[in-house]
């Protein structure tokens, strides 16, 4: 297998708005990030992914960009950015930036021009269509509720927006659009950044004709997803982008790709395809979604969880590579969703971390994960800020769904769970800001915060630090093959890793209930060294054992198994 720095590294994701405010305006900023680089370095991460920091009216917190080459005023200046990059590289940290090119803001100068008249040369930068008898061009719904089309009175046409109204989709069929984007990418790469995380990059090619989507019973809109995800020209575009831009730099790329399965994933990431290095799959994130989509929360089974993880490992192992994540700025906190954020918060956070950092792929840590930050429950909808959450809330209220039912799904799945400010210490507003934070701090900050974590040798933080260190010491953790044990067991997640003649054995009790781990009859070995565990272990010998709640152990096996 080809060795690469981005396979060996660990990524730390920053949501700048919520990370650290340096000037008391209640909004995190670049100087705040600079202040905390030593903290990230101490954790051991190698690569920082910054969510969008470009100029934006912030209808979707920076995912609606009005100028790709400018820094958002609230976040700082161009000089702050240069300093941030310099301070990162000085510490051996790499920087990957968010690339949001499926859409821009409606305040981007291209869109302003595009909207000004049908004849404007920028008209074709976006996707404009005539209505049908006073209705939108087709029945597609937007990801953020409502129709995916917005009517413009002045020019009597509709424009497509798969996300918010203020996020018009770019027309990638227009070669000029693609060239402008490649140019902009070179602008950042020439400054020395180390790669891109590409926002919903598999949505950039739409099926010509934009046909109506299937409409489920009682649904307000049709499903345009089959006509927008993995569209007919997406690989042509990405190969062009790779040829024109990516291949000229030593960088890493990761695509965010909803609706990609392991077969279609290979087309994006297999190294002989010259497109991307890795992608974020959603199959695991959808494990607890019912028929009604993400807000329709259903129970999940460990056997399914394992099957999904293994399928992705197997699918991409030869020529591709996986990215490993259980939460980010769009997903609830992993310890609340897959672990136990009460009695076993620390144990379960460490157990899940063990999985992410001993499976094959590049692990991503989302800010606060390393101290076991949890979901939040604000009582009133007015405390919420996320446009997806608010639009969904309003739509459901109009449909007559009771408030309690809606709040329940927001508590489980709302994106603001991940966006409450980073908890630095027990002072007011968790040390995030000296002003009023743009979104309230999670009330548990007095207990869960960085200062406490750094004082406690047994904290989740130091466990992550140790996992990352192990990754650096043992190539097998990066490159080793995976083999599942006890596949159908609903309590224990166990697997081996093998590389040359080395072997690791990872045993995870995924739940609160004690569970028995049994060695197979045929497993023979000379000895086993316990590399890490989230509990005190009196007897580190490897044998049949009863695992405690959320117990995790990683053994290095000598000769055999
Ligand atoms: C991606 C981003 C999300 C954003 C959306 C639209 O899914 O991760 O935060 O709202 O794209 O840009
Ligand atoms: Ca600020």
TrEMBL record:
Its main location: cytoplasm. GO terms for biological process: oligosaccharide catabolic process. The keyword Hydrolase applies. Gene3D superfamilies: Glycosidases, Golgi alpha-mannosidase II, Oligo-1,6-glucosidase, Domain 2. The keyword Secreted does not apply. It is found in: Cytoplasm. Residues 13-419 form the Glycosyl hydrolase family 13 catalytic domain. Coiled coil: none annotated. Belongs to the glycosyl hydrolase 13 family. This is Glucohydrolase. It comes from Clostridium thermosuccinogenes. The lineage of its organism: Bacteria, Bacillati, Bacillota, Clostridia, Eubacteriales.
């Amino acid at each position: 297998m080809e060795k690469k720095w981005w396979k060996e590294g660990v990524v730390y994701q920053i949501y700048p708005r919520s990370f650290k405010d340096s000037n008391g305006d209640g909004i995190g900023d670049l100087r705040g990030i600079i202040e905390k680089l030593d903290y990230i370095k101490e954790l051991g991460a190698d690569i920082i992914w910054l969510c969008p920091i470009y100029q934006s009216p912030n209808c979707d917190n920076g995912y609606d960009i009005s100028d790709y080459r400018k820094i958002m005023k609230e976040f700082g200046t161009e000089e702050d950015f240069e300093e941030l990059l310099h301070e990162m590289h000085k510490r051996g940290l790499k920087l990957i930036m968010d690339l949001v090119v499926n859409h821009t803001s409606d305040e981007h100068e291209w869109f302003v021009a595009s909207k000004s008249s049908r004849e404007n040369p920028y008209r074709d930068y976006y996707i404009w269509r005539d209505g049908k008898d006073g209705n939108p061009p087709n029945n597609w719904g937007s990801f953020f509720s409502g129709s995916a089309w917005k009517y413009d009175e002045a020019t009597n046409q509709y424009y497509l927006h798969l996300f918010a109204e203020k996020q018009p989709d770019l027309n990638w069929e227009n070669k000029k659009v693609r060239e402008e984007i490649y140019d902009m990418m070179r602008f950042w790469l020439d400054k020395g950044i180390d790669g891109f995380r590409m926002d919903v990059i598999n949505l950039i090619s739409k099926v010509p004709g934009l046909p109506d989507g299937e409409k489920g019973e009682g649904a307000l809109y049709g499903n345009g997803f089959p006509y927008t995800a993995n569209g007919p020209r997406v690989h042509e575009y990405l190969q062009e982008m790779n040829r024109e831009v990516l291949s000229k730099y030593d960088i890493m790329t990761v695509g965010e790709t909803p609706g990609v399965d392991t077969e279609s994933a290979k087309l994006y990431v297999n190294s002989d395809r010259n497109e991307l290095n890795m992608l974020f799959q959603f199959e695991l994130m959808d494990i607890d979604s019912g028929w009604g989509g993400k807000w329709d929360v259903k129970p999940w089974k460990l056997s399914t969880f394992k099957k999904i993880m293994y399928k992705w490992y197997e699918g991409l192992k030869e020529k591709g590579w996986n990215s490993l994540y259980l939460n980010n700025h769009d997903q609830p906190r992993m310890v609340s969703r897959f672990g136990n954020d009460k009695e076993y918060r620390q144990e379960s956070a460490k157990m899940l971390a063990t999985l992410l950092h001993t499976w094959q792929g590049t692990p991503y840590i989302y800010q606060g994960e390393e101290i076991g930050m949890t979901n939040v429950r604000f009582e009133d909808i007015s405390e919420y800020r996320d446009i997806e959450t608010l639009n969904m809330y309003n739509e459901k209220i109009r449909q007559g769904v009771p408030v309690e039912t809606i709040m329940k799904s927001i508590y489980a799945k709302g994106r603001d769970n991940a966006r409450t400010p980073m908890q630095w210490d027990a002072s007011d507003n968790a040390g995030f800001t000296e002003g009023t934070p743009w979104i309230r701090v999670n009330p548990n900050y007095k207990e869960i915060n960085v200062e406490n974590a750094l004082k406690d040798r047994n904290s989740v933080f130091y466990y992550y630090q140790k996992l990352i260190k192990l990754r650096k010491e043992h190539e097998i953790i990066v490159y080793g093959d995976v083999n599942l044990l006890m596949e159908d067991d609903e309590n224990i997640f166990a697997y081996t890793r093998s590389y040359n003649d080395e072997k690791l054995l990872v045993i995870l009790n995924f739940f609160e209930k004690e569970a028995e781990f049994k060695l197979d009859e045929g497993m023979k070995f000379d000895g086993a060294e316990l590399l890490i565990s989230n509990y005190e272990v009196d007897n580190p010998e490897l044998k049949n054992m009863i695992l405690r709640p959320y117990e995790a152990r990683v053994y290095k096996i000598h000769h055999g198994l």
